[in-house]
Structures are given as structure tokens and as C-alpha cells.
């Protein structure tokens, strides 16, 4: 990344501007403003991740950069987080979004703002800027949303295809830890009383989310897909192929009536100017182009840029810690693209004499799949150990690894060896006729790129809880032994398979720890099926993005270096397999204001290959903060297990001031298994 130190405007940096809401709650904002620019548009980032320490390293490189180009950049700690007052009860609440609208109104009324406000964010911030745009506050003129979703039930960390994600538990543990930290005493003299109040009211959210196993009004709130017609604010949407929010970009570009564009790169769950795998690109310059057009009204032609720009990844060896992915940028003027055609691949059928019947050819794939149907699927419970994280953050083997070992215990349909490259762009759709011997179960589909040496790269995956085969709102158990037709989408992709490789469809009834297992091992019998494959006509490099840039990084000192390990372990006595993660981020000192912070985490995901009820997840978190003689620490512990009828979720939260324990609380919840 190129570090830029000279900008059109010098900037002022105010660390704690108070925004007092109508109910008297004071939110704390850090504000970067351009000197001598007069009233300018404001750009708001509004999240719970603590501007004083949590997101400070990225904030200083982004917001100072944008402010230097003539914008007031405002980074607000949400109610109940960081240096703001109040309490937080859940994610994306009515209160949270009402506060956002009130902050936007407040910003527009300041004498240093010209009345136009933009909103940006990644992940939580990417979500709530879409959700706020849905509410149409008058001063909000444009948003830039990174790694977000349009559907909180179908495409977030809780459920996917109606399947309960392991990350539902994991994210509950994360937020139990993240929200346990106090305000900085330098900014909040009442920090201790407010900290104890936060701890006493801290929610353990994983059970609440796990209990809501259908698409209810709870999930529809904040899901902009419920009424795309309300999305009248221009949107620039970003995603990454190594992240699990890659579907949002295409959904927005296809459905939102406002000016909307999307860019998807090879990246993990990070901003595109800092993300891996490379190439990183000039996210800040492209965001400025969007702001200039819609906040300042500059006729720069941004509205005529391609509707959908996607980095088409090329075949390479699998690498769960890839620093760079080979590929090229495809630029589509409209989406869906007329350059994409759906080619139908039939899963092999048996003829009357037990021989494979002919399978239609499909473009560059040649003669379809080799495996014949009917076929039964009942995979071991530990399948999925190489799936990677729901939202990988970096290079610690968090991306999908070699799928060959999981393929070996899946049911795989292989295409022929390709004689020429095959380009895929869009979402494949899988259609199956099947029966199940259990009322609860799911099916997972992975599209993989299989090299001549047998290594397997996951291109995309999709899944369906069979209780949701007809409806996400009104699920129903599978009729045991009855044949039904089901269909579901596999995630969006942009991928070029090399000549000499083959395309694989791998099916499984397990996917640990990405999905929580069904209560009984289900056997599915697939009678017939087909795959609708989005084949692109082929392209060369069609877009050259600007280079990645940022402002001067934060001034800090490493007090203790961190270390991360990620292992798959097999217990040779009891037969369990476990994913074991230790992530110690070390300790650092902010040299600007002297605040020292540190964080450590462990995760255990264990299961026996033959027993879904052996599944167990245990997470621990420690947060450390200090300055001089002052120090605090919080420890969060969480565990999830299950019986055939219930999910069991336990947690504890402990806080220390110095070496003295000042708070302790325990949670013990049991959730009925209705559809998972």
C-alpha cells in the first residue's frame, strides 16, 4: 500500500465530540475535518467496535485520508460501546437504527457540514448503513457498504439456507467479550460506574439467535431484501470471494432501484485496500469518487462506471493462507450479464440395464458427470475441517484449504477433464430429487476445482436445511421416506478453471464446524438432479483499479508480540477430531494517548465422526486494557453442546480491576431443536 502524507487540505482531529441524542444519551464521536474547506459533506461510520482502540488502526488510515480530500469524517461509537453512554441489547435494533438517523440529522445541522451526509462501514457498519438507507433519512445521500448482507436470516452469521451456523455460537462469544470493555478513563471520568452497569446488563445473545429457527419478523427487521423499492439512496457495495458475504453485491446491483454498483475481489473480511489475498486495490479513491458524485454533486461520471466488477480467480494450488490470488478483473455494464448463460448439467442417471445413460454436453465441460444416480449420502460428522472461517480476517489458515480429504468422504460428481479454460460468473443452482430417513437434516454442495494432482480448491458452496425446502418462513420436518424436489443456490463466484482441470460437485450431509450437525445422522437418497451452471463467455482483463492507498498508520509500540496456531487434532483413544485455534494478539501501546490493549482467544470445535451429539464448541476470550497504574481485564467463556432435543449454551463473564475481581456472571440456556 502507498502511504499518502500530503493532501489537498490539512485536517483537525477531535477525539471525543459529543452527540447528545433526544433521550439524553451522549454518543462519542471522533471527527476528522478539513481545515479551510468551509461547510463540507459528512461521512459517518457507526459501529460498536471502539474507536479509541478497536478500529483505531484502520480508522486513522481511512478517515484522515478522506478528510484530507474535503470531507468531515465522523467515527461514532454506538450506544453502550466504547466511549459512548447507554446500553446495547442486540444487533441492528430499532434503537440502533433510530440513533443512526438522529446522528445523521445532527451532522447535517452542524455549521461545518453542508447538509449532505454519507454513510460507510464494513460488516456491522456495512449492515447498518444499508439498513439506515432503507429508512430514508432526508440528509443521507449515499452509502458505501463493505461485507454486508441484504437478508439477515438467509445470508448472515446465524443461519445459511436455514442451517444453523457454528458462527452463531462463535459470534455470540465474540460479542460477550467485545462489549465487556470499559470506556477510556481519560475521556469518561465515570468509566467505572458505567462499566459495571454495562457488565450487569451484558446480553448473551447466542441462545436468543439459536431459538429463532425460521425467518420471523425478528430476522426480517434490518433485511433490506424485504422491500428493495425502499432503497432509493445510491449504494456502492463491496465484497470478497474469501468472505461469506459475497452474495450481497450481486443482490443489490440486480434489485436496488437507486444508482448502485458492486465490486467483488479475492479478499477476506477486510477493507479492500488492506485485505488479503491480493491484489488489494484503491478502495479509498473509489469511495471518494462515489462521495464526490453523490455528496458534492461533481459530474465525474461515476454513475456510468460498470455496474458489477468482479475479480475472476484463476486455478492455482489450494492455500488456506494465500497472500495473493491470480486472476483478472471482469467489468459488466449491466447485471445480470448477457455474457453469462446457464448451462444445465444433469447428474448421471442409470439406464434400464444398470448402465449410465447419456448425459448432455455442456459447453466447455464436455460430457457431464461420471457418478450415477440413485446414490445415497451419509457422510462422517467431522467432514468440513478444511472449510475455513465464515469471515476470515487474515493469513492464519482461515481460508478454505485443500478440499481433497473432505471430497474423499463426500459423494462427488466429476466433470470431464477440460480441454480449454472454463469461466464461471454468478450463482449456480442445484436441483435434487431426494428422500431422507430422518425428519431433520441438511445437504451441502461444494463446487471444486480439481487439479491433475488431485488437489481440490473450493470455488463456492451452498447448503439447505431440508426443513426449509418449501419456505424459510414456515419450515416443516421432512416426510421420512418420501421423495421430494428441492433446489437451492450455491454462492456467487467468479472463477476460471484451467485446461486440464475438472469441475467437481461434492455433496454431504455434514459440514463441521461450519454447520451445527443434525440430531441424528441422516441418509439421503438422491434419485435425480441437475446443476444450473453460470458460464461466462470468457474475457481478458477489463478493468485496472487504482493502487491501494492510505494515510499515515497509527503510532504504536508492540509491548508483547502475539502468536496464532490452528491445528486439526485426532484423539486416538476416544476417536474424536477437533479443530483447535489459539489466537494471541499480543499487547500494544498507543503512543498518541498511552492506552495499552491486548487480546487473546482460544477455540475448540470437536466431534466424533459417528456421533452428531458429540459435537462440542468451547471458546475463551480475554481483553486487557491499561495505562500507568490503571488496568482492567475481562474473561469470557462459552460452551455449546446438544442433545437430540435441545441445544445447550453456557457462558460466563468475569471482570477484574487490577488483580481484584469486580464482577462475575454465569449464563445457562437450553433451546429446543425444532428445525435444526
TrEMBL record:
Q: Which PANTHER family is this protein grouped with?
A: COCE_NOND FAMILY, PUTATIVE (AFU_ORTHOLOGUE AFUA_7G00600)-RELATED, PEPTIDASE S9 PROLYL OLIGOPEPTIDASE
Name of this chain's protein: CocE/NonD family hydrolase
State the InterPro entries in the record. Answer: AB_hydrolase_fold, CocE/Ser_esterase, Galactose-bd-like_sf, Xaa-Pro-like_dom, Xaa-Pro_dipept_C, Xaa-Pro_dipeptidyl-ppase/CocE
What keywords would UniProt list here?
A: Hydrolase
Q: Which domain of life is it from?
A: Bacteria
The record places domain Xaa-Pro dipeptidyl-peptidase C-terminal at: 288-555
Q: Which residues form the signal peptide?
A: none
What Gene Ontology molecular-function terms does this entry list?
A: hydrolase activity
What is the scientific name of the source organism?
Cypionkella sinensis
Amino acid at each position: 500500500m502507498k502511504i499518502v502524507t500530503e493532501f489537498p487540505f490539512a485536517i483537525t482531529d477531535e477525539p471525543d465530540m459529543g452527540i447528545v441524542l433526544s433521550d439524553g444519551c451522549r454518543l462519542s464521536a471522533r471527527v476528522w475535518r478539513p481545515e479551510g474547506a468551509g461547510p463540507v459533506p459528512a461521512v459517518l461510520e457507526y459501529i460498536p467496535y471502539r474507536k479509541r482502540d478497536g478500529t483505531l488502526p484502520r480508522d486513522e488510515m481511512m478517515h484522515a485520508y478522506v478528510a484530507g480530500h474535503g470531507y468531515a469524517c465522523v467515527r461514532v461509537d454506538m450506544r453502550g460501546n466504547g466511549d459512548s453512554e447507554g446500553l446495547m441489547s442486540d444487533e441492528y435494533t430499532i434503537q440502533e437504527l433510530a440513533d443512526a438517523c438522529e446522528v445523521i440529522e445532527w451532522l447535517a445541522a452542524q455549521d461545518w457540514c453542508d447538509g449532505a451526509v454519507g454513510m460507510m462501514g464494513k460488516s456491522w457498519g456495512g449492515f447498518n448503513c444499508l439498513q439506515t438507507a432503507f429508512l430514508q433519512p432526508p440528509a443521507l445521500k449515499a452509502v458505501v457498504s463493505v461485507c454486508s448482507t441484504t437478508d439477515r436470516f438467509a445470508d448472515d452469521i446465524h443461519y445459511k439456507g436455514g442451517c444453523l451456523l457454528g458462527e452463531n455460537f462463535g459470534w455470540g462469544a465474540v460479542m460477550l467479550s467485545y462489549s465487556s470493555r470499559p470506556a477510556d478513563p481519560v475521556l469518561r471520568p465515570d468509566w467505572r460506574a458505567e462499566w459495571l452497569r454495562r457488565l450487569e446488563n451484558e446480553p448473551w445473545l447466542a441462545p436468543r439467535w439459536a431459538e429463532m429457527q425460521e425467518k420471523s419478523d425478528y430476522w426480517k427487521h434490518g433485511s433490506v431484501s424485504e422491500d428493495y423499492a425502499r432503497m432509493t439512496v445510491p449504494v456502492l457495495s463491496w465484497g470478497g470471494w474469501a468472505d461469506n458475504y459475497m452474495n450481497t453485491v450481486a443482490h443489490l446491483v440486480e434489485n436496488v432501484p437507486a444508482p448502485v454498483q458492486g465490486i467483488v475481489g479475492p479478499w477476506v473480511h477486510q477493507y479492500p485496500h488492506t485485505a488479503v489475498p491480493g491484489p488489494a486495490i484503491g478502495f479509498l479513491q473509489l469511495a471518494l469518487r462515489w462521495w464526490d458524485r453523490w455528496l458534492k454533486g461533481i459530474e465525474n461520471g461515476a454513475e456510468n462506471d460498470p455496474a458489477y466488477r468482479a475479480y475472476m480467480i484463476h486455478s492455482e494450488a489450494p492455500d488456506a493462507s494465500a497472500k495473493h490470488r491470480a486472476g483478472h478483473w471482469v467489468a459488466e455494464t449491466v447485471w445480470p450479464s448477457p455474457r453469462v448463460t446457464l448451462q444445465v448439467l444433469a447428474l448421471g442417471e442409470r439406464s434400464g440395464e444398470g448402465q449410465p445413460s447419456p448425459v448432455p454436453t455442456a459447453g466447455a465441460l464436455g460430457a457431464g458427470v461420471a457418478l450415477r444416480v440413485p446414490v445415497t449420502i451419509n457422510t462422517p460428522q467431522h467432514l468440513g475441517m478444511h472449510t475455513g472461517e465464515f469471515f476470515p480476517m487474515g493469513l492464519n489458515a482461515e481460508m478454505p484449504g485443500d478440499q481433497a480429504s473432505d471430497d474423499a468422504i463426500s459423494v462427488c460428481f466429476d466433470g470431464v477433464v477440460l480441454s480449454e479454460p472454463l469461466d464461471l460468473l454468478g450463482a449456480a443452482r442445484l436441483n435434487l430429487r431426494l428422500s431422507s430417513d430422518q425428519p431433520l437434516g441438511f445437504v451441502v454442495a461444494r463446487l471444486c476445482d480439481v487439479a491433475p494432482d488431485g488437489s481440490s480448491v473450493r470455488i463456492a458452496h451452498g447448503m439447505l436445511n431440508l426443513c426449509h425446502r418449501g419456505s424459510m418462513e414456515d419450515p416443516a420436518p421432512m416426510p421420512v421416506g418420501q421423495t421430494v424436489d428441492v433446489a437451492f443456490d450455491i454462492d456467487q463466484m467468479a472463477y476460471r478453471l484451467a485446461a486440464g482441470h475438472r469441475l467437481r460437485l461434492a455433496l454431504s450431509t455434514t459440514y463441521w464446524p461450519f454447520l451445527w450437525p443434525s440430531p441424528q445422522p441422516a441418509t439421503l437418497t438422491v434419485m435425480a438432479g441437475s446443476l444450473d451452471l453460470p458460464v461466462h463467455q470468457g474475457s481478458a482483463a477489463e478493468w485496472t483499479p487504482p493502487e491501494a492507498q492510505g494515510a499515515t498508520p497509527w503510532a504504536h509500540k508492540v509491548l508483547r508480540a502475539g502468536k496464532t496456531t490452528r491445528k486439526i487434532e485426532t484423539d486416538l483413544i476416544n476417536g474424536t477430531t477437533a479443530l483447535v485455534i489459539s489466537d494471541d494478539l499480543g499487547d500494544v501501546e498507543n503512543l498518541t494517548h498511552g492506552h495499552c490493549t491486548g487480546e487473546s482467544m482460544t477455540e475448540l470445535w470437536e466431534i466424533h465422526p459417528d456421533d452428531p451429539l458429540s459435537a462440542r464448541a468451547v471458546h475463551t476470550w480475554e481483553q486487557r486494557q491499561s495505562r500507568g497504574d490503571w488496568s482492567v481485564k475481562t474473561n469470557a467463556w462459552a460452551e455449546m453442546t446438544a442433545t437430540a432435543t435441545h441445544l445447550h449454551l453456557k457462558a460466563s463473564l468475569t471482570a477484574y480491576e487490577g488483580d481484584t475481581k469486580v464482577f462475575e456472571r454465569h449464563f445457562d440456556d437450553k433451546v429446543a431443536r425444532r428445525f435444526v
